[in-house]
Each structure stands twice: as C-alpha cells, then as structure tokens.
Write a structure and sequence with these properties.
With about 475 residues, this protein is an alpha/beta fold. The chain has a single domain, classed as Alkaline Phosphatase, subunit A, CATH 3.40.720.10. About 30% of the residues lie in helices and about 15% in strands. It is built from 14 helices and 17 strands. Helix 9 runs antiparallel to helix 10. The two termini are about 30 Å apart. The relative contact order is 0.21.
C-alpha cells in the first residue's frame, strides 16, 4: 500500500481551543450565530472547511452526492436489464452451465427446481444510448440521456445485512465508517450551519431493517456520522429547546458545558472532547438552520407538480427527493435517501408496481430539478440497492406471479451528473441475466469511482486505527474509467 497521505491524529492549529476562544473573547452563543469560527477546522486542524485534506488530490467533477438507496434489492430484470431469452425459456430449469455451482440462499436452495422466470413487463429503448428501460419507469425513461446505467455491478454478500453494510461502508462486517462519513472526514462541509452528511428515510416501509451504523462514523470522529432528518415537528431529535428553556438560557448552559469540556481536555488530553465541543456548537447553530431547510412551503406549485403528488406529504420519497435538492443547494456534502420495500421473494409484479410508482417520478424529477438549476454538472446522483434478484422464480411460477431470491452475481444501478458519462450504458450480463460477462464493477470499484469524482484518490484517504491504515475501499478497488465523462 502506498504511504498514506493523512492519518486520524492531528494537532490543533498552533494553540489549544481554550486559548483560541479566550483570546478572541467569544462565548458559544456568538460562535453559533456568527461566521467568525469554523469549529470543524479548529478541531481537526485542516486547511479545508472541516476536512482532513488540504486540497483534493485532483480536480473534482462533483461537489456533493445524493444517493437514492433502494433498500432490499430491486430486481434488475424488471427495471434495466432486459432479458427476452427468459421469456422464451420461461419455466425451464436454470441450466447448470449457467449457474456454475454458485451458492444459493436457504430460501430457494432447497427447491426441487429453479424455473426461469421472464419479466411480465414490457421494455423499450430510450435515449441516444438505446438503453432498455422497463415500462414500470416511464419518468426515468424520459431522462435516459442524463443517466449512466451500470448493468454489471456485483457484490460478495448474498444476504441483506452484510450486503447493505458492504455497500455503505466497504465491509460486510459492521463497525467501519460509512461513505458519507469518509467524505465528511476528507472534505468537510461547505456550510458550517448544517451537517455535512444527512440521512432521509421513507417512513412506514419496512421489509428489511435499517441500522444507524449504516450511516455511522465507525472509528472516525463521531462528528462525521450522518444526521437523520425526520418528518414531523422535530426534524432532528433533541434539537429543539425543552419547554421553559429559552435560546438565551440554552446558550448559557452550553457555555458552561464547553468550559467543563475544555477543563477536561486540559487535564486528560482526550482529543474526542474537541469533537463533543464541535457537536454542541453545531447543534446550537442547527436550531436556526434546520427549520429553514426543511420548510418546503415556499416551493412553487410547478416544483410540487414536477416531483409528483406525494411531494406535499412530509416523509414520502417524493418529499425527501425535494428535501435533498434543498440540502444540496445549501452545501450538504452527502445526502442519503433510503427507501425500503424492494425485497420481493414473492409477488414481484405487485411489489415492483408499488415501489416504482412511489419512486420513479421523484427520482427523475430530482435529475430535472438539479439540471434546470445548473446543479447537475457538479452533483452526483446515484440510484440502486445492495444486490440484484435471481433469474429463476423463488416459489411457484405462474403466468401472472413469481418471486425472485437474492442475487449478488449481477445487478443494475444508475448514476447521473457529477462527471459521469450521460446517456450511456456500461457493462453487460449473460443472456440469462445471471452472470456478468463484460466490464464487471465490484463494490470497491464503485467506491473508488465515487471518490474519484469528488477529487479523492481512494488509496490516499486513510485513517490509522488499531495499528493499520483503513480506507473505504479496504485492500482493492479500481477506477471505472468507462463511466467517466
């Protein structure tokens, strides 16, 4: 491995935080309400706004990422990977020459047969690339010329928890920093009044659970973890003042708490105390910034029409896509949307109709909205899940119904903006839709490419923990040059 450019242990900028604050005579309230101090820079000692990198390793194409994560594993065979042979051979057993002894889950591994299942949905070609897109995604089809569709993703995990953990953190084992945390650590924030990493989850849609560790900071300083914004009265839990506590009283309390933390830092030398101070300061500033950014009432009617009827209902995927655009406008570096409900072991037709109806228009609208505001060029938008689905039916196959099991060997995602090649299709699977046959993209390759688009060489953003240097791509990963504009 190359000599790491950066480590996780850095000095303060020439003098202690306590000395800095006392020298300028600033209390926490004035720090929070003014722009005189970037607390992340003071606590991290970096020249960029809160990030560890003094400058990107090379010119960045993207300034920010909006990741639309379809949790549960959407079927590539009902969306972007058209396989007419499956319809011709519908009901026939999966050939051993195609399966090649690859492992199955316990949910279908004990079936007497594995009948091939063709999609009941029609496909058509769209855009200058002639990309095949399902009738389930009519709005996405209209923005085909803005998309780079990758049909050759593959992963190592066959079950949900390790697979989603792998996509989010670069490891199947929990405890590693998430993508957003790595970006926050490396690049910092463009807005000191908002977190650099925000998470939005569509409520009420649970087939597979989500865990806060998926947007956690792992062994990185905790200020880099994702902050979940919720719909309702309190967008961020415990941010509002309790009844009977004024902003002035809270400021005085935080001033005293800061003094206690600084006294503890002086006696113990524990660098994590600086992180706690920075987090309290950020929380104080967010009391003003968060209500403004989550208030969608000022959006014009044509924007609501663009995102669809659900956009006026807080917490829906449509409202979250609109919220993501507002966060991106205000400098949030990494915005992660989770939409659950894609785990269709049975009733693929019904489940896919529902999921696509909820997500198709808002996802396409986000592309159009960013584009009309001149933001798509430097915003990377990603759509996809943790793995794909099998080409054979799990359970009984009928003319109108079938299920699909987990399939790590190939799946599809799309990217748009931020330096990827628009109107393109990358990679290819076999005619059975079971194996990658051209330009395979491993999860680590995807991570390396995402970091590259943000100006980061994936081998050079590291953190020393328990005696070795870690990175998002762990021990391998190659830049996927074929998706770059």
């Amino acid at each position: 491995m190359k000599t790491p450019l950066c480590t996780g242990s850095l000095p303060l900028d020439g003098f202690g935080r306590r000395e800095f604050l006392s020298r300028f005579g600033l209390g926490l309230g004035s720090i929070a309400l003014g722009s005189l101090l970037n607390p992340a820079r003071v606590s991290a000692g970096a020249a960029s706004p809160g990030g560890i990198l003094n400058a990107p390793h090379f010119p960045a194409k993207a300034k920010r990422v909006i990741y639309l994560f379809m949790a549960g594993g959407p079927s590539q065979l009902e969306t972007f990977d058209y396989k007419p042979l499956l319809n011709v051979r519908n009901g026939e057993d999966l050939p051993a020459s195609v399966r090649l002894g690859q492992r199955l889950t316990g949910m279908s591994g004990n079936q007497a047969s594995l009948p091939l299942a063709g999609s009941i949905f029609n496909f058509a070609q769209h855009g200058r690339s002639g990309a095949w897109i399902s009738e389930l995604l009519p709005h996405t089809a209209k923005v085909a010329d803005d998309l780079c569709i990758v049909r050759s993703m593959f992963t190592e995990a066959i079950n949900h928890d390790p697979a989603i953990t792998f996509l989010q953190t670069g490891s199947q084992l929990s405890g590693r920093p998430s993508m957003g945390a790595w970006l926050s650590y490396g690049l910092g924030s463009d807005n000191e009044n908002l977190p650099s990493f925000v998470v939005l989850i569509t409520p009420g849609k649970v087939d597979q659970p989500l865990y806060s560790r998926l947007w956690g900071s792992g062994f990185l300083p905790s200020r880099h973890q994702g902050v979940q914004f919720r719909s309702g009265k309190d967008p961020v839990l415990y941010l509002s003042n309790p009844d009977g506590i004024s902003a002035e009283n809270r400021g005085l309390m935080l001033n005293r708490l800061r003094e206690l933390h600084e006294a503890s830092l002086e006696s113990s030398g524990d660098a994590d105390i600086n992180t706690r101070i920075a987090q309290y300061e950020m929380a104080f500033r967010m009391q003003t910034s968060v209500p403004e950014v989550v208030d969608l009432s000022g959006e014009p009617q044509h924007i609501y029409d663009l995102y669809g009827p659900g956009s006026r209902k807080p917490g829906t995927f449509a409202a979250n896509c609109l919220q993501a655009r507002r966060l991106a406008e205000r400098g949030v570096k990494f915005i992660q949307l989770y939409h659950q409900g894609w785990d269709h072991h049975g009733n693929v037709p019904g489940g896919m109709r529902t999921q696509c109806r909820e997500t198709d228009q808002p996802a396409a609208a986000l592309i159009q909205d960013l584009k009309q505001r001149g933001m798509l060029d430097d915003t990377l938008v990603v759509w996809g899940g943790e793995f794909g689905r099998t080409n054979y039916s799990q359970g009984k196959l009928t003319a109108t119904d079938y299920g699909r099991d987990h399939h790590p060997r190939c799946f599809s995602i799309w990217m748009a903006g931020g330096g990827v090649k628009p109107g393109s299709v990358y990679g290819e699977t076999c005619e059975f839709g079971y194996n990658v046959v051209q330009n395979g993209v491993h999860v680590h390759d995807f991570h390396a490419t995402l970091l590259h688009l943000l100006g980061i060489h994936h081998e050079r953003l590291t953190y020393k923990y328990q005696g070795r240097y870690f990175r998002l791509t762990d021990v391998h990963g190659e830049l996927v040059k074929g998706v770059l504009a």
